[in-house]
Amino acid sequence: MSPIAAPPTPSDPASQDDFLRRVRPSGWQNPPPRSRYDLVVIGGGPAGLSAAEIASRHGLSVALVERYRLGGNSLNSGSIPSKAIIRAARVLSSLRDDEEYGAAAFGPLTDFPAVMERIRRIRTRIAEYHSVERLQAQGIDVFFADARFAEAHVVIAGQTPLSFKKALIATGARPRSSNIPGLDLVGYLTSDSIFDLAELPKRLGVIGGGPLGCELAQAFCRLGSRVTIFQNEAKFLPDEEREAAELLSMSMSRDGVDTRLNTTVVGARTDAGAKWLDTVNDGIKCSIVVDEILLSIGRAPNVEGLALAAGGINFEMEQGIDVDDFLCTTNVDVYAAGDVCNRHLFTNVAESSGRLAVQNAFGARMGRQHQAAIPWCTYCDPEIAHIGVHAREARERSIPVKCYTVMMQDVDRAITDGQDYGFIKVYVRQRTDQILGATIVATRASELINEMSVIMSAGIGMRRLATIVHTYPAQSDAIRLAAVAFVNSRSEDLDGRRPQATGPP
Amino acid sequence: MQALSELTDDALLDRLQQAAFAYFLENTSAHNGLVADTSRGGAPCSIAVVGFALSCYPVAVERSWMSRREAAALTLRTLQFFWHSPQSEQPDATGFRGFYYHFLDMQRGRRVWQCELSLVDTALLMAGILTVGCYFDGGGDEDDIRSLSEALYRRVDWHWARNGLATVSQGWKPEYGFLHYGWEGYNEATIVYILGVSSPTHPLPAASFAGWTLTYQWENLLGHDVLYSGPLFTHLFSHAWIDYRGIQDTFMREKRSDYFENTKSAIAIHREYGARNPRGYGGYGRDFWGITAGDGPGNREMRESRRDHRFFGYMSRGVPYGPDDGTIAPWAMLAALPFNAEAALRGTRHLLKRYPQVCSNDRFTSGFNATLQAQGIGWLSEGWFGLDQGLLVMMIENYRTGLIWEITRQCPVIRTGLMRSGFAGGWL
Q1: Domain boundaries, chain A
Q2: Which CATH number is associated with domain A183-297?
Q3: Which residues of chain A neighbour B180 with C-beta distances below 8 Å?
Q4: Which of A224, A354, A448, B238 could form a disulfide with A47 if both were Cys (CB 3.0 to 4.6 A apart)?
Q5: b/e map of A24-61 (b: 16 or more CB within 10 Å)?
Q6: φ and ψ of B171, to 5 deg
Q7: A286–chain B Cβ distance below 8 A for any pair
Q8: Mind telling me how many Å the CA of B75 is from chain A's nearest CA?
Q9: pLDDT reported for residue B167
Q10: How far does Cα A142 stand from its chain's mean position?
Q11: Would you state the pLDDT for residue B175?
Q12: Contact call for B219 and A405, based on CB within 8 A
């Protein structure tokens, strides 16, 4: 299933009108509804769009209901804008390192609005790939309206009842709110609002050390803000390897981020026009003054206002919609996909689950969601990417596991690139060469992990991998070096037989 | 006196071991046996250092640096202090529920710096208390040492320290409660579990050690298979007391290794890292290693040879993931003596020859950084740290005579703890 092949039409990408024309045209008139749709999709984010597009390509009649703008969190306030601001931050950061390359060091950022304008331009350009116009051209009926279930096979879009054979709920998630006393009064930003900033905050306090909190803390620090990040756990990115999280801590500190681990924000207040955050670390109290606060403590599934009970659909406020392994809800004709029901809130997970839900709803064969085969990445510098199981999960499941680690500081191309912080760790079922998973911490981990994804889906083992010729020098050669370490490792690994590198079959 | 570099290995070890032990003679409060954390003016007592000091008294007796009566009297005063000092929830008590605060003032022995009630440091203290309880097997003072040793150990409420969870927390503060960062991955805490599960009064559940080992990572790193832990001391602390040669828990049986062999692998990785020297630090090489927790140059940034270098104060440094700021612990290579004597001696001799400033009065400084050139001699940690000196005395002795390991192999608490944690084979 390839994405739409035609390139976006050239237009003035800076224009907000262009953006809105693509994601929510002004004066939009909802189409007259069909008597019954094969599929009604609620939510026009990555999961909903991929589901609607694949269903319509298979000749099904599809209605897509979106309450705000197409593209979801990913396009509007998540993956795309955050990666664009991270790029700006990386450019600035690398220019500051120039002395080692014999050039004069570059000064501070002077034009923050230009950075934000670039984000908007990028967002506008990318919006074209799934624009309203294109959806219409594919025969999808797009409704901009709130949606709620009237009964098991009817959704109301605004005032219009849409009758369906199958429905997909893909309403996504939103930034989780907090009960920190005073925070609502003081005011704070979330990922939904931070990309609307007109000027760079001098001092930024980031509450929450998950992926988005870390990414934005580092990016704003590199752009010139004085950033303090508060994490109430012992490490950032609690789901990741300890070494990965610690490397990220060190990297953020090197950039100048004030990192406060094991620190809980217990209150927010305004004093003499400044915003104060009161914190506690192991019983020791502290107060920090900031200009802006970014709250990034996770995401809450969008389950409210949908009248799910009327559709016979079970859900929980925290975990979202209750789905089985096949993404089917408690209403056998209603599926869910994306952030509203997934544990891993990533765009690629959302898209693949959207496609899978359609396949399961209409196809002859049902498929399970293979979380293990889905890679994900946190786009700090270095990036932290993962696929498959972690060593700890394997041990908890009594799978004997061994990690083959290659430090990026030992990879020739990472050295020449000056990008030698990080590592590649491949988890192998002990006494076999079966790859169970991998964690990659590297400047380009988001790209490198895709090689692991292909290797794992193709069922390539460590012995075979060791023989696959890579370009030299390349950072991805680190993956092959891990396999070479496997081959060179001591003989016990294969029950006394020394592993032999063999050519491809 | 002959220069250290001219001595034979045996004479060199003798000089360095005795000088390390003398730290305790110079930095102990005679009336309560408390030992200062460092030789710096006003330093408080660290209870872990007391654990090391107690374990070193048998060495001093056997090597005739102290008379047995003198050593027993000092040991007894120390144990009496810990038995009678206040145990309560008061913020200035000495301990609570049988555990002790990490740092105590040298005179009165009360908590200082709002520090934590420390599990691992109490375990190190108890390891020392159990060592003297086994070593002093005579009458008089030695009778009292044995009964106090048992009473102090039995009083520790390991069960409480779990805070209802499967594995232990790192500490507790009266102002705050349990410190909520747990332990993930292999580290120096093995001794906590071994002593905890063995308790006849308030034990950890036998499964708690296995629960902790679920967080272990068996890695192939820099060409060596190892149960990973970054800082070198984590491969040495429990080992100072426990002879891990040939005994295996479930994890090590699965990996066909043991914790002694594992430390050898860790040393090989540290040496390999030194040789590769990825960050280009001054001095690093196959005979210049020993990256661990310890004192450092302090938080500063420096640009040298067109590269940014960041330096840290007291922190846990590790290999190969870091943090690494070019600081090594000059004592650490020698502390690896029982595991790889050749590497330990080669490294130590290289250090003494190339950077003699790291060893004044025959005693190693806690930290040294050859990259940061203060007065042209590199950054040197000021004074001496008790932990370093105690570990050195014990490890040199284990290499020379195996005395500490011999004592603890006979210690019922340690034997039971090992067996309940799933260890078997070898001398067990």
Answers
A1: 16-78+117-175+300-371, 183-297, 382-494
A2: 3.50.50.60
A3: 234, 262
A4: A354
A5: beeeeebeebeeebbbbbbbbbbbbbbbbbbbbeeebb
A6: 175, -175
A7: no
A8: 34
A9: 77
A10: 26
A11: 87
A12: yes
Tokens standing for B413?
């608490």
Residues of A in contact with B278 (CB under 8 A): 407, 409-410, 420
Q: How far apart are CA B276 and CA B86, in angstroms?
A: 51
Mean of pLDDT values over A198-220: 96
pLDDT tier at A483, thresholds 50, 70, 90: very high
DSSP tag of B212? H
ipTM of the complex: 0.93
Whose CA is closest to A209, among A255, A264, A282, A283? Answer: A264
pLDDT recorded at residue B110: 98
Question: The pTM is what?
Answer: 0.92
How many CB atoms are located within 10 Å of the residue B39 CB?
A: 17
Token pair 């190969």 is found at B320
* CATH of segment(s) A16-78+117-175+300-371: 3.50.50.60
Q: Is A396 on the interface with B (CB under 8 A)?
A: yes
pLDDT for res A304 = 96
Interface of A with B in 413-432 (CB under 8 A): 420, 423, 425, 430
Question: Which domains are delineated in chain B?
Answer: 13-420 (1.50.10.140)
CATH fold match for the domains A16-78+117-175+300-371 and A183-297: yes
Interface of B with A (CB under 8 A): 114, 116, 173, 175-176, 179-182, 184-185, 214-223, 225, 228, 254, 256, 276, 278-279, 303, 306-308, 310, 320-323
Percent of chain B with pLDDT over 90: 88
Q: With 80 as the cut, is the pLDDT of residue A490 above it?
A: no
Q: How confident is the model at residue A7 (pLDDT cuts 50, 70, 90)?
A: very low
Q: Kindly give the parts of chain B with pLDDT less than 70.
A: 180-182, 300-308
The closest of B228, B222, B240, B224 to B332, measured between CA atoms, is B240
Whether B180 sits inside 8 A of A242 (CB atoms) is no
